[in-house]
Amino acid sequence: MQNNTTSVISESVNKPDEELDLLDLLVTLAENWKLLLFTPIAAGLVALGISFALPKTYQSESSVQVERTGSSFSAPVAASLAMSADVLHTIAPVAGLDEGLTSEEIYKKLSKRIKVSVGKQDKLLNVVTEAKSPEAAQKLNQALLDTLFPFSKPRGIEKKQLEQQLGSEKKRLQEALKLEQDTGANIASGKSVTEATSRLYGELLSANSARQSAVLDMERRLGGLDNDDVVQAPTLPESSIKPKKSMIAIGATVATGFLLLLFVFARQALRSAQENSPEQAKKLSRIRQALPW
Predict the structure, then answer these.
(1) Which of 49, 81, 161, 288 lies deepest, with the highest CB count within 10 Å?
(2) Residue 106's domain spans which residues?
(3) Residue pLDDT, tens place only, 195-243
(4) Nearest alpha carbon to residue 70 among 171, 168, 165
């Protein structure tokens, strides 16, 4: 019975304190509502105005079909080469960088302006470049592709083997085309036309078509990537991606409002401590003397 009485008394004491704290909070907000409302809005408008004066950034995008059957030059390899020191050093003048910069300095600067990725499904090589103008962004993107394409050509043993294979395949194709032509002429003239001859002619047509495709594929592999492999040419952006004016304005408004809210509550807490506690008032006086500003 005594415990119940104690808990009731405790609740009756704490409840008015909580209501009083909430009331003090509402009073503080009511007394400073103009400061808390109009100052953040003004800060947001100022930030919005400043954002119009900030330098703009434009982004150009392109996509290239890199994957080819039988080729060791894959999309991940192309992505790695696109960000290599050789490629970046070559396109540095196009990006407006001084030729006196080291390879490391060029990489640090261009890695912020060039993004290369590989599509998970389509395996396309996607290149994104950034610059201060639409034309500069597009030019940098095209320069990267033009510099990267020669690296896609086979080299060394792979090139030699592919050239030998291509030569052999062309020779066999010429022989097969001659046989196809002779067989077709015999069928057209009606001489020695049998079911086997007709079947042979059909098989020759199919085999020669596949062999021609293989020859073209090997020739393309020897030539490396070119503009025919570009799925999406470097775009000419119409609008900037930076600065994000709305985000800057909203961020400035929220940050200013939060800081003002902390300032108002801290100031009110100091006032309450000074009014309710002589000891706290003395401490605050000592702080003001030590920090006159």
Answers:
(1) 81
(2) 58-153+227-232
(3) 777 888 788 888 888 888 888 888 777 888 888 889 999 999 999 888 8
(4) 165
Q: Is-contact 140 129, C-beta < 8 A?
A: yes
**Neighbouring-strand partners of residue 62:** 127
Q: Residue 113: how many CA atoms within 13 Å on its side-chain side?
A: 25
Number of independent structural domains in the chain = 3
Q: What angle do CA 44, 48, 50 make, to 5 degrees?
A: 115
Could you give the CA distance from residue 60 to residue 62 in angstroms, rounded to a whole number? 7
CATH number for the domain harbouring residue 65? 3.30.70.1130
Q: Are 257 and 40 in contact (CB under 8 A)?
A: yes
User: What stretches in the chain show pLDDT beneath 70?
Assistant: 1-21, 70, 191-193, 273-277, 279-281, 283-284, 286-288, 291-293
**Residues 50 and 63 grouped into a single domain:** no
Instruction: Return the structure tokens found at 15.
Output: 């409840």
Residue 74 token pair: 């894959």
The span from the CA of 28 to the CA of 264, in Å, is: 8
Identify whether residues 142 and 97 lie together within a single domain.
Answer: yes
On whether the pTM is more than 0.85, the answer is no
Q: How far is Cα 293 from Cα 289, in angstroms, rounded to an integer?
A: 9
Please give the pLDDT value at position 141. 96
Q: Cβ(60)–Cβ(236) under 8 Å?
A: yes
Q: Residues 63, 132: one domain? A: yes
The verdict on residue 37 lying in a domain is: yes
